[in-house]
Amino acid sequence: MGNKYEEEYGKVQLPPRRSEDGGLREGMLIIRADEDCVGAAGDCENGFTPHPARAFAEIYLQPVVRSVLTAEQFMRWSKRELRLEEANLWSLVLELLLDAEQGSKYSPDAIGIADVQPHRRWYVSHLSHIQELLQRHTLLRRMNIVVRWLEQTYREGNTLLKLSASRSHEEAVLLRQIILSHLRGGELYRAIDLAVTAGDCTYSCLLNAAQMQTVYESWFHLTPLVPLFGEYGNGEVDQVWAGNTHRLDNLSQLYEDSVALSNSDEGRSAIGGLDAIVAAVLCGNLEVMEPAFLAAGNWKDALWCHLRAALVLCFTKTLMNAHHTVQPLYAGFVEKFTGSHDSWQEETARGVVQRLSERLQKNYLPFASLEEQLQMRVILQFLSPGGVDWMCITDDLYTKRIDGARIISHLLLCLDTAYNETLHSYSVQVYSNTLAIALAQYGQQLAQMPLYSTQDAMQAVIAMNLHLRDTRQRAAVYAAFLVACRRRELESSSRQDVEANEAKLVQLFCKADPVSALHDEVMRLLNQKTESTSLLTHNTVAEAVMWRAMHADSHEDFVVALREALEACVSFWLAEPHAELDAISDVSGILRRNILPYLQEKNETLGDIELIEAHFWIKFAEVRSTADEHARSTAQLDVALGGGDRTLVFQLAQDESALLRELHALTQEALSHGGALVRRSRSCVTAVTWIVQVFAEEVALSVRLATPGASVMMEQLRKVFALVEQLDGLGYIDPNLIPRQSARELFDAVRAARVACGQKSHDLLVSEAKKTAAARQLPL
């Protein structure tokens, strides 16, 4: 009976020979799933295919995120979108993670080689020795996984070999080219079929002899099998006999042939050169095979040469240690490569990786595409020892692809998830802040996506960002997303709508990530990064108050926001060279919309004096806005009086009168709250007197332009005097309190209103007298 893993994902098996689908594909560890329905939830049902940036991000909204399943899903999406190299990247990650997940289930002791007497271990099958070697040594096993992946990508990419010795079109040369191409793709059985079909007895025999045969063994049910590459994983399964007696003799002869041909004139011919390369590939002679493959300039070919040669020699070394016979020249070559010390397996593998890393970094890494660079980095990261960081992404990588941040972010997130699942010893967050940088750029892309709700995008950003363990890094991602959202929303929405949307976005991550230090850091970054042209307020301090109010999610937070808002209003009024009235209006709006509605329900821990002061600034802003509106209405009425539309004049006169009455009521309310402000700052008494000054100026304007009746004028003038008396009664115009300049401006405004009323009364009397005189002169 298979275990749960095998029942769900399928057991690792050596594929049968001459499979039409290719042996490696059938033997791969992959998750079987329905490829016809991939994408965001519900999208397939609605016939909508989401953008990859959105679909990939929403993976992390699932309750449980596993690295293996994530890599498998990303691989399928990439294939569906015909992103070949990206799909290759995810298939590489998937196979390495599946191997890591399978690692705890390998049981090399179950193979039973240790129970066999040393002098009889030559009788144990080649497969058993190789399986034990790979199951005991993780680095060699990962090298084997990478070779399988390189063979698979070669087959799927249909890449033609371009060798320096393959220019001839003769039949014999073409045969060797195709055989070599099959070997590069890990399909030795196809090369054998080709040789048999072409009637080439020599190649038919040597290729068959190079293939490792296998039988079903008793230990197969005790431990999973490591899927092998090339001729090691495509042998004929014979239930009686493995038939590998002369296989090492064949490899020995192939090594001698490869050396002899490479040093002779025959090896310089097209046929002789290809014969030498084929022999070198099969026996692992890197010195002969590498120059030919490097002529194509492909990093995958170079990597395949190194890893395949190393593994072939390591497999041979293992069999030599089990007393299998190898010819002296080949044995010496193997010993020279692997050494004779006890820990030759790990040291040999580390040496190969070191040479590979130097070569890839120097010759290929700087010039490859983004996806291929990431493939190289993943391979080197999994093959390198702990403490080596290959995933530190440089800034230039993000510019190689328009969606580079998406690919990099999800790769690093997948590796970080694997680290948390103990599938990998490397943590992308320990050595650098690459993941945070990638997520910040990716979040900005999500914020700018059309037809994607910013609140939905924020949910995805939160889900990904919570993987970051550093508070400041998470704050940087949130801040970058909010700045990008504002930039997008300001193009199509009003500032008030943008502010309301931002408040919702802020509350989303405040609830999902309730760390006060993070919220403070987000506000600090927003105040730094927000461009002056993108401010929703008229002042950076007012902007900071707005962010503080948005981030408030407790009573204490709202109290802090209230006090910051009150301090800001005072500083705005006392600003030099003149008060920042627009900023006061911004903050008063924040007080009215965001802060006071919450505090008025729970004001048991808040002094009434602060609430009264807040109401003053709210009324102060309303006085200013109403005065501006009254001035515009009065100007419109003055223009209408010069025309002949009495209906319009009547309507505008009613509006002007209503606005002046509203202004008077607001001024009275503001005066009643002014004491709280003066208690905070005696210098702010001028703010209290200023609102009376504004009312007096509006009365003067109304009298001059709106032509009210005598009774109305006197009523408005009495209101001005009453407000001044109220100021005096409250002590606001005490010479020791109010500055001389402010007092002068106040009384100049009152005097102007009185003069305007007097002048208008005089004009009315003169007009009335003229009318009376004219009436007396009319004939009866």
From TrEMBL:
Recorded GO CC terms: nuclear membrane; nuclear pore outer ring
Compartments it resides in: Nucleus, Nuclear pore complex; Nucleus membrane
Major site of localization recorded for this protein: nucleus
Alphabetical list of InterPro entries matching this protein: Nup84/Nup107
Keywords: Membrane, mRNA transport, Nuclear pore complex, Nucleus, Protein transport, Translocation, Transport
Nucleus among keywords: yes
Taxonomy, superkingdom: Eukaryota
Positions of region (Disordered): 1-21
GO biological process terms, semicolon-separated: mRNA export from nucleus; post-transcriptional tethering of RNA polymerase II gene DNA at nuclear periphery; protein import into nucleus
Pfam families attached to this UniProt entry: Nup84_Nup100
GO molecular function: structural constituent of nuclear pore
Keyword Glycosyltransferase found: no
Feature: compositional bias, Basic and acidic residues: 1-10
Similarity remark: Belongs to the nucleoporin Nup84/Nup107 family.
PANTHER family (alphabetical): NUCLEAR PORE COMPLEX PROTEIN NUP107 (PTHR13003:SF2), NUP107-RELATED (PTHR13003)
Subunit structure: Part of the nuclear pore complex (NPC).
Protein role: Functions as a component of the nuclear pore complex (NPC).
Identification of the protein by name: Nuclear pore complex protein
